[in-house]
Amino acid sequence: MENPIVGARRADWRSYAVALVITTAIFATALYASNYFNERRIAEIRTTQDNISIDILSLETQFDLLAEHSCRDISENSVLSKEIRPLAERLSYLETQRSVDESELLRLKRYYSLLQIKDLLLMKKVATKCSLKPVFILYFYSNEGDCKDCENQGYALTALSEKYPQLRIYSFDYNLDISALQTLLSINDVENKLPALSINDKMYYGFRNIQDIEKVLPQLATLDKAASSTRKSAR
Amino acid sequence: MPEIGISGDIIYTLLFISLYFEVFLLISFLERRAERFRPQGGGNGAGALPRVAIVIPCFNEERTLASTIESVLALRYPRELLEAIVVDDGSTDGTLKVAKQYEGREDVRIFHKENGGKHTALNLALAETTADLIGCLDADSTVGPDALMRIVPVFDNKDVSAVTPGIHVKNPKTMLQHVQDAEYNLSVFNRFMLAALGSAFITPGPFSIFRTQTVRDLGGWRHGHSTEDMEMALRMQAGGHLIANAPSATVHTSTPRTLPELFRQRVRWTYGFLRNALDYRFMLGNRAYGNLGLMILPLALVSVGAGIYFFIHVLWYWLERLYDLILRIQITGAFPHPSLDLFYINTSALWFLVYIAIALILVLICTGSWIGTGKRMPPVGTPLFILFYSFLTPLWLGTAVFRALFKTGVEWR
Lengths: 235, 413
Description:
Number of helices of chain B: 12
Low-confidence stretches of chain A: 225-235
Number of domains of chain B: 1
Low-confidence stretches of chain B: 37-46
Number of helices of chain A: 8
Distance between the termini of chain A: 72 Å
Strand order of the largest sheet of chain B: 3-2-1-4-7-6-8-5
Number of strands of chain A: 4
Mean pLDDT of chain B: 89
Structural class of chain B: alpha/beta
Order of helices and strands of chain B: HEHEHEHEEHEHEHHEHHHH
Radius of gyration of chain B: 23 Å
Helix content of chain B: 40-55%
Shape of chain B: globular
Helix content of chain A: 55-70%
Strand content of chain A: 5-15%
Number of domains of chain A: 2
Oligomer: heterodimer
Structural class of chain A: alpha+beta
Largest sheet of chain B: 8 strands, mixed
Strand order of the largest sheet of chain A: 2-1-3-4
Mean pLDDT of chain A: 80
Strand content of chain B: 5-15%
Largest interface: A-B, 46 and 70 residues
Distance between the termini of chain B: 37 Å
């Protein structure tokens, strides 16, 4: 236990200064640590994107080399379906983090959008050659505060993709400055009335819940059945 | 937590100030530890012992008064130099009857008066006593047998006008009392450090001892917005008197058992602090008052605002999250699965800083425990204190600020 204590009335300027230095050092360390972990996250996303890019390139090459022989492999090998959702979610999460480098994040988003477009084109190509009927949804959103239903639309689409794992949902930030995306917007005649969905080459504006989408996309039932029959045959 | 925009900047600023204060206290403590073998200003007890009067002001304290008086009578101090002055401040229960059981003893004097508030009871005793030192012991507290002998030698330093003890929770039973036990350990540290910095601004009701002449010179106790102990300390500081702390002089005090009781007590304390700080605002930022004016009082005021701001911010955040969750369940028809992906562990600087601030509070509580009792382990209520207390505090901070703004006054009970 301590002895009694009393101090004379004075200003401890030295202690003020030392405390300021230490507190600043603590803050700097916390910011550095946070930045370090965010960099690691970005590196992780970058690696995932690079892997997806390689996968797409590989599939394209495989497709070109083997033509119809590769149809079965390709149809069963959904490049983005496994990784696209977590990647999108991870990017959305990083957008909420204060200390993430915005330009780096933007670069990742642009890269991600390009990968999606490439995958979309490849899948369309595969679908034509292999007589497949993949189900696509293109989702256009904005996170600049001008689309109050975009978050809800995101929830609905996430739930839909969980319900139908084979459904391919491609989500694009409407405001992303990337020429390939602008071309995609132009081809689909997407107006700035977000959220917007392109389903079977038809545009839908405003929030659509799961039932609305199921109604305009009857192929979903086929996907579901296909999944069930696969499970049955596997037993 | 959300941390973008102006509110994020305010949060970071407040967090910086909170951390700065904790670091400042720890540095000051470590500096003192480095100087531990130098004379500390406490006396050696070699001089003749002074006469001491312990005043027990009481209002409806029939349940606890006897144990309070007994603890005073059990103090290890020459009987002829110690008197207990029980002042019944117009109790309506059996308090006076309990007090009268001690009538006839030479070392106990009993007074009864109309209810006028604690400060009037103390002033009555001040007028009646001829003792050199006068102390107050709230009738809900008991004092350790060695407490007085640990305090009195400090007055060998002629500059010291008051000495505060180390206050602990008396027999904590309810969860809330255990939480307060941790809080009181933190207060032991704070009181110790404020004394070391010459910045004590409270001389708590349980067993603070004063030079009788100093209190008389200052004009006795005042109402002090129902916190006469704070007002007296600030008046002493304004008059250039030193207030020391003897943490090993242990006092145990009854603490509120329920949340409404705690709420009432803390509203009174915070209200008193705010109003007294307003009365003594000339000290704020004033170099003449050293650390008290430059650091302690301004930061104590900031801490009130910070507590309320943090609370509103966190509450708003969780309400938004709840709204989003309900909306999401409505849209998807299912409860979202929590992600176990390490990617989503929050590693924002804000959280790191919150963890560091919590760790520092834990260090301060342990230090308080060690200073006060010699135990290095924190009390059992510490985790609950750290987890929940910051959510409770803003309730009375907000109420007290509201009352202070509209000068509504507060009740003792």
